[in-house]
Amino acid sequence: MSELTREGHRGTGPGAITPDGCAVELYERLPVGDEPDIVQRAVPARARILELGSGTGRMTHPLVERGFTVTAVDESSAMLERVRGARTVRSPIEELELGERFDVVLLASFLVHTADPRVRGRLLRACRRHVADEGCVLIQREDAGRHENLPRERAAGDGLIRVVSSEPVRPGVRSVHVEYVFPDARWTQTFLSCPLTTEAFEGALAEAGLAVDAYLTDDRTWVRARPVLDRP
Ligand SMILES: C[S@@+](CC[C@H](N)C(=O)[O-])C[C@H]1O[C@@H](n2cnc3c(N)ncnc32)[C@H](O)[C@@H]1O
Question: What start-end ranges are recorded for coiled-coil regions in this protein (predicted)?
Fold first, then answer.
């Protein structure tokens, strides 16, 4: 499988860098936030979760500890080598064909904002074909102010995450540059992001056969979608 960089994505800093510009050593040390709580509140106990773009298992590990059975998918073998307690599958999400369906499919980390609308469609269709009829898809999307008031920074463990800039590169697509500064190391990631209005987001879901069931957080960044079923 190719380790080529995805168009418009790059990363710098120590250790392996994924095709979308993420640093493996960075994700190994980034603390998890409230994501596992949000997932736990939104899905049945002990559900089977398909986690798309799992990285090193930052969210996987707390979910496994809470009794969920997780299959972690990532296109980076260097990321998946760090995942413990879960089945791992190396694949681009858009090409995933496991032939199984899960109680929950998780598409976090703003992957739905990919710059290419065809890729977005393929990501969402991968969610749709892997979710059980009675199951759900949890998606993490950007909040409205994500590309404004920059630079902006916040603490992460003993480091700082600084969103330095977000510049338009073509209609509807921005190039975002982020720095991660720790006492002993520094990483950067540059990636493309396509901001989506609620209407555009819900439209993309509908094209993939999914529909919003609930916005799970006040900032509307976490969404639970359900498959639209073909009833005779
Ligand atoms: C920003 S990291 C987040 C990792 C993890 N979700 C977390 O929150 O710690 C994004 C991860 O998704 C993977 N990824 C991004 N796009 C992907 C795609 N289209 N197919 C498979 N993996 C992808 C990257 O390799 C990386 O490990």
Answer: none
Residue 213 Cα to ligand 1 middle (Å): 24
Residue 222 within any structural domain of the chain = yes
Instruction: Confirm if 229 and 210 have CB atoms less than 8 A apart.
Output: no
Longest dimension (CA), the chain: 60
In degrees rounded to 5, what are phi and psi of residue 159? -125, -175
Instruction: State which residues form the domain around 217.
Output: 32-143+196-227
Q: Give the tens place of pLDDT for each residue, 151-171.
A: 999 999 999 999 999 999 999
Q: Is the pLDDT of residue 2 over 50?
A: no
Residue 6 structure tokens:
């995805």
Number of domains in the chain: 1
Report helix, strand and coil shares of the chain as percent, to nearest 5: 25, 35, 40
140 lines ligand 1 (CB under 6 A): no
- Alpha helices by DSSP H, listed for the chain, are 24-29, 35-42, 60-65, 77-80, 117-130, 198-207
Quick check: CB of 51 below 6 Å from ligand 1? no
